[in-house]
Amino acid sequence: MTTVLISGLGLIGSSIARVIKQENSEIEIIGSDPDDESAQFLLEHHLIDDRQVFTNAVPLADFIILAGPVSVVIRQINELITLPLKPDVFVTDVGSTKEAIMDAAKPLISEGVNFVGGHPMAGSDKSGSRSGKLDLFDHAVYFVVGGTTANPKLVQFQNLLSAAHLRWQVISASLHDQLVSEISHVPHVIAVTLVNTIADDLSRNPDALKAAAGGFRDTTRIAASDPTMWTAIMMSNAELINHELSKFQQHLSHFQTALEARDEEEIKNIFKNAQAVRKSLDERK
Ligand SMILES: NC(=O)c1ccc[n+]([C@@H]2O[C@H](COP(=O)([O-])OP(=O)(O)OC[C@H]3O[C@@H](n4cnc5c(N)ncnc54)[C@H](O)[C@@H]3O)[C@@H](O)[C@H]2O)c1
Ligand SMILES: O=C(O)C(=O)C[C@]1(C(=O)O)C=C[C@@H](O)C=C1
C-alpha cells in the first residue's frame, strides 16, 4: 500500500488530497495539521484516512508533501533530517518561494533523500480545508525545482495528481523566485496597500466601501488572503520583492508626472501599453 503524508491541511494541502483521492482512492493519506477543524473536516469527508502528528507520520510515508506556510515548510525540512525515513521516500513541498526552501533541503538531499521543490500556480484568497477544491489546480502551471523526468518517484508523484491535468514546468529556484516576485508577490503587496490606503481615507465613513464595484473588488480580492501565509512569503523573498517594488514606484512616479503635467498623450500611451499586455494574457489561456 502506498502512503502519502500531507502536512498542512489548508487550501492547498486539502485540494491535493481531493485530487489524489479522485483517481487513486486506494492510496492511504495521512494528514497532519495542528488545526483540529481542518483535519476533522477531511476525516469526515474521507479525503484523508488518518490524522497523526508529523513526527509519527513521517516514518510511515512513501510520499511526504509539505503544505504549511513557507516558514513551517523550512522548519519541517530541518526536522526531517533528524527523523527515520523510508529508504525510497519522495519529499516535496508546495511553498510559494523556492530558494530558501531548496537551501534548507540541501543537507537532506546530500543524505541521499529524494527531495524536489514544487509550487502549484493556482490558489485563492480563501484558506483552510473547507475552501479546498478538486478543480483548484485544473490545467495550472506546477513549477518543479530540482527534479527531472529521469526521477521515477517524481513521475509517480505527478501521476498521483493526474486528475488535475497540470502543466509541469521545471525551473531553477532563482528564476522561480524572480518570476513569482513579479507575477504574484508584488501584486499582493499592491492590493494590500491599495486597500489600506482607501480604508484610511474612508475611516470616517465605512459604508462608502460597500459602494465599491468591480474595479476595486477585482484589483483587491487577494488582499483578503491569510496574513500568516503571506508574511512567510514576504520574509523568504524580501530582497527580490523590494527590488520589484522600486520599479513599481518608478512607474507610479512616471504616471504622476504625466498626470500633474496633464500630459494626455503620455497617459493614453501608458494605458494602451497596459491594455495590450493584459489582453495578451487572456488570449494565451
Ligand atoms: N493560497 C494560495 O493561493 C497558494 C498557492 C500556491 C501555493 N501556496 C503555498 O501553499 C502553502 C499552504 O498555503 P494554503 O493556501 O494552503 O494555506 P492555508 O492557511 O489554507 O493552510 C495552511 C495550513 O498549514 C497548517 N499548519 C500550520 N502550522 C503547521 C504545522 N506545524 N504542521 C502542519 N500544518 C501546519 C495550518 O493550520 C493550515 O491548516 C503555503 O506555503 C503557500 O505559500 C499557496
Ligand atoms: O488566486 C489567488 O488568489 C492567488 O493568490 C493565487 C496565487 C497568486 O496568483 O498569487 C497565490 C500564491 C501562490 O503561490 C500562487 C498563486
UniProtKB/TrEMBL annotation:
Q: Which GO terms describe its molecular function?
A: NAD+ binding; prephenate dehydrogenase (NAD+) activity; prephenate dehydrogenase (NADP+) activity
Matches recorded under InterPro entries: 6-PGluconate_DH-like_C_sf, NAD(P)-bd_dom_sf, PDH_C, PDH_N, Preph/Arog_dehydrog, Prephen_DH
* Record keyword Phosphoprotein present: no
Q: What biological-process terms (Gene Ontology) are attached? A: tyrosine biosynthetic process
Q: What class of enzyme is it?
A: oxidoreductase
Q: Please, which domain of life does this record's source organism belong to?
A: Bacteria
Q: Which reaction does it catalyse?
A: prephenate + NAD(+) = 3-(4-hydroxyphenyl)pyruvate + CO2 + NADH
Taken from the record, one Pfam family name reads: PDH_C
Keywords, alphabetical: Amino-acid biosynthesis, Aromatic amino acid biosynthesis, NAD, Oxidoreductase, Tyrosine biosynthesis
Q: What is its EC number?
A: 1.3.1.12
Question: What pathway is it annotated to?
Answer: Amino-acid biosynthesis; L-tyrosine biosynthesis; (4-hydroxyphenyl)pyruvate from prephenate (NAD(+) route): step 1/1
Residue intervals of the Prephenate/arogenate dehydrogenase domain: 1-285
Matching PANTHER family, A to Z?
PREPHENATE DEHYDROGENASE, PREPHENATE DEHYDROGENASE [NADP(+)]
Stated family: Belongs to the prephenate/arogenate dehydrogenase family.
Tell me what this protein is called. Answer: Prephenate dehydrogenase
Which organism was this protein described from?
A: Lentilactobacillus hilgardii (strain ATCC 8290 / DSM 20176 / CCUG 30140 / JCM 1155 / KCTC 3500 / NBRC 15886 / NCIMB 8040 / NRRL B-1843 / 9)
